[in-house]
Amino acid sequence: MATRTALRRALPSIRSAVTHPEQQLRFTRSFSTTIPSLAPTPSSSSTSAAPEYAIPDPSRPTHFGYETVTESEKRERVAGVFTSVAESYDRMNDLMSFGWHRVWKDHFVASLNPGFSPLTSGPDPRGPQHILDIAGGTGDIAFRMLHTAHNLNANPSVRVTISDINRAMLTVGKQRSTLLPASQQAALSFVEANAENLSQTRPLHPYPSPVEPTSHDSHGNQEQAFFDPATATASIPSSSVDLYTVAFGIRNFSNIPAALREAHRVLKPGGVFACLEFSKADRFPVFNALYKEWSFRAIPLIGQLVAADRDSYQYLVESIERFPSQAAFRDMIVDAGFVVAGQGYEDLTGGVAAIHKGMKPRV
Ligand SMILES: C[S@@+](CC[C@H](N)C(=O)[O-])C[C@H]1O[C@@H](n2cnc3c(N)ncnc32)[C@H](O)[C@@H]1O
C-alpha cells in the first residue's frame, strides 16, 4: 500500500520526464547504440518511413534456430513447431522451467499493474484500458491481466485481445478461457494475426484439433493451422492500444524490427510496449554453464519423452541462444521509436529471462 502511494506520487514526474521532448531525445540518444547487422539510417527512430530491414520480405535470410532460412520459411516452420506443441505446451512449460515461467509471468503482469495505470490511461487510472497480448498462445498472460485488472484492481473496464499467428495455440487458449469467470470471458477476444503486420487480422476461426496438421473448411478445402493473410478481414487500428504485451513470442518472429514498428503503430501515444523473453545469463559464468547444459541436453530429451517431439524443443532452445542480448534488444526497441527509462530492461533469474519496456512518446 505504501509502495503504491509512493508510486502514485512519483508518477506525474516520471510521466513528464519521459514525455518532455528534450528528455525523450536524451533517453533515445543515451540508449540508441547501433546494432551492426541492423545499422539504422539517421531517420530510423522516426516513425515516418520504415527502414528496409523493418519491412517484411519473404525472401530475406533469417535464422530458424541454428539454420539460415528465408523469412517466409521461418514463419511456416515456426507455425509447424507451435501446431505440434500446442496441446502439450502448458505441461512442457512447467517441466522445462521447473515452474519458473509462472513466477516470471506473475512478476511481468504485476509490474504492469493492469487496471490501474496512470501511464497508459486517461486522468482516471481506473479507466478503460485495451491490452493487446501478442503471440498470446494459450492465454497465460491475458488471463493474468484480466485477473489483476478485474479482481485485484476492481476495474472491469479492462479488455484484452489475445493475438497469435497460430490457430492451434489460440484454440487451446480459447478452450482454457471457458474456466474464467463470465465477466472475464466477456472482456476477452481472440484474433489471428502475424505480429509483423497487424493491419491484417481475423477473429479466431477455431481449429478442430491442434494435433491434426491440417483441417478442412466448409467447402472441403484444406486449411492451414496458422494464419493466412488472404482471409484477413480486419485491421488493428493505429493508436488504439494502451498496453502491448508479448511473452516468449518475439524470438520466434521472422522480422523483429517489423513487429516492433507495428507495436509502435497500434499503441496510443503514452502507451506501453512490454516484452518478457528469454535472455542472456552470461554475467554469471558458472550458473550460465549449468543452465546451458540443462537447456541443450535435458529440454530436447524431455520434449522427446513427454511430447514425442524432440525437434520442436531443439528449435526452442536454439532460438533462445540466437536471441539478442538484453542491451541489443533494448536498442532495437529504441530504434523502433520507443523511449525507455533507466537501462530499459529488468533481468529475471540472473538474466535467464528479461523484461523490456518502452513507451510510445506522446508527441
Ligand atoms: C512460446 S509461445 C508463448 C505463448 C504465451 N505468450 C506464453 O507466454 O505462454 C510463442 C507463441 O508465439 C507465436 N508466434 C510465433 N510467431 C508469431 C508471429 N509472427 N506473429 C504472432 N505470433 C507468433 C506462436 O504461435 C506461439 O503461440
Automatic annotation (TrEMBL):
Which InterPro entries is this protein grouped with? Answer: SAM-dependent_MTases_sf, UbiE/COQ5_MeTrFase, UbiE/COQ5_MeTrFase_CS
One Pfam family matching this protein = Ubie_methyltran
Asked if the keyword Membrane belongs to this entry, the reply reads: yes
Provide a GO CC annotation, any one: extrinsic component of mitochondrial inner membrane
What segments bear the compositional bias annotation Low complexity? 32-51
Give the pathway annotation: Cofactor biosynthesis; ubiquinone biosynthesis
Name the GO terms of the biological process aspect.
methylation
Regarding the membrane, this protein is recorded as:
Peripheral membrane protein
Q: What is its main location?
A: mitochondrion
- EC number annotated for this UniProt entry: 2.1.1.201
Would you indicate the residue range of the signal peptide? none
Region described as Disordered: spans on this chain: 32-65, 201-222
Q: Which UniProt keywords apply?
A: Membrane, Methyltransferase, Mitochondrion, Mitochondrion inner membrane, S-adenosyl-L-methionine, Transferase, Ubiquinone biosynthesis
Compartment(s): Mitochondrion inner membrane
| Binding positions for S-adenosyl-L-methionine per the UniProt entry | 138, 164, 194-195
Instruction: Give the reaction(s) catalysed.
Output: a 2-methoxy-6-(all-trans-polyprenyl)benzene-1,4-diol + S-adenosyl-L-methionine = a 5-methoxy-2-methyl-3-(all-trans-polyprenyl)benzene-1,4-diol + S-adenosyl-L-homocysteine + H(+)
The top EC class, named as a word, is transferase
Molecular function terms in GO for this entry?
2-methoxy-6-polyprenyl-1,4-benzoquinol methyltransferase activity
Q: What's this protein's family per the entry?
A: Belongs to the class I-like SAM-binding methyltransferase superfamily. MenG/UbiE family.
The entry describes its oligomerization and partners as: Component of a multi-subunit COQ enzyme complex, composed of at least COQ3, COQ4, COQ5, COQ6, COQ7 and COQ9.
**Reported function:** Methyltransferase required for the conversion of 2-polyprenyl-6-methoxy-1,4-benzoquinol (DDMQH2) to 2-polyprenyl-3-methyl-6-methoxy-1,4-benzoquinol (DMQH2).
Query: What is this protein's record name?
Result: 2-methoxy-6-polyprenyl-1,4-benzoquinol methylase, mitochondrial
The scientific name of the source species is: Chaetomidium leptoderma
Gene name? Answer: COQ5
